[in-house]
Amino acid sequence: MVASGLEGPIPSSISALETLTDLRITDISITNQSFPDLSNITGLSRLLLRDCNLSGEIPSYIWEMSKLRVL
Asked: Which of 9, 34, 58, 70 could bridge 46 with an S-S bond, Cβ 3.0-4.6 Å?
């Protein structure tokens, strides 16, 4: 079993991690949180948000991330 250890929504400060290349967050029990703002993380190559209870659409900037290989 994989778990992130987070107990609340994905923190907005995650966008400050501009050099991050691999982001994996799983198993957050809070309901109906919006997609985290990842627009500053331009070098992201892997993004895994499994069982995070996200609501809404995937932001359009995600499709413009040229280095993103795994979503």
From this structure: 70
37 in any annotated domain = yes
DSSP 8-state secondary structure symbol assigned to residue 51: S
- Report residue 26 as tokens: 């799983």
Q: Is the pTM of this model over 0.85?
A: no
Q: Into how many domains does the chain fold?
A: 1
Give me 58's structure tokens: 């995937």
Q: Output Rg (C-alpha) for the chain, integer angstroms.
A: 12
Residues 48, 66, 15, 33: is their CA dihedral positive or negative? negative
Residue 51 CA, chain-centre distance (Å), reads 11
Residues facing residue 60 across a β-bridge:
none
